[in-house]
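Researcher: Here's the sequence for the chain we discussed earlier.
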Amino acid sequence: MPDAVQIGSPLRRAFAHNDYARERPLYDALEHGFTAIEVDVFLEEGQLLVGHGTRDLLPHRTFESLYLDPLAELVESRGHVWDDWPLTLLIDVKSEARSSYVAIHDALARRDDMLTQHRHDGRLTGPVTAVVSGHTDAGLMARQQVRYATRDGRPGDLVDGLSAVTTTISAKFGKLFDWDGRGRMPTDQREGLRRLVGEIHRTGRGARFWGTTQDMWPELLTAGVDQIIADDLPALRELLISRGGGTPTTGRATE
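Model: Thanks. This is the structure I predict for it:
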């Protein structure tokens, strides 16, 4: 861990979008107290490479080198990331679901001492909690005796049936609501957003929406959305602190 890195006070609803694209992946988000970090991964020739698209991939920018190795060093030196809240590492899988998940599981297993572990006989909470999103294989995950990640689902899961391995529900905001953040959010859409978040919370899961703008943050916070996605880290930090630190409205889902 670089000597200059500082760990900010945790903001429990702060989610760093496309963290790998920052000047200092991982460290900028931690310095601003972001407790959830998104990393896009592709399985390419047996390597988990980080990038938004295949043209962005470089052999030295691996999931392990950018995230798992520095997090392991951080946890070893501090004993935790934050002493009262885990860091959520959301792994957005862009390649084929099953083979990618197997590679992710193997990489996480090599760092199992810092990770939350999900077992058929219970859960062991660690400093870092991993969640897989995008291309996922809930069936494979459910059959594992030991896992190091949970799954990020979609609103359709609320209708089709929620797997026990699914701990969060996310969706593209624009697919559900027409409001673009300008002016007041129409009353019917505001009520629809709050109903959906409430339904997600009743299942014990957390709620997140992507494709949002900074102008939408106050409505998302008021609706109880658990993770607010930001590209501008200082702006969201300032807003959350002004609203009491960003304490989530719902607890983490259990299995």
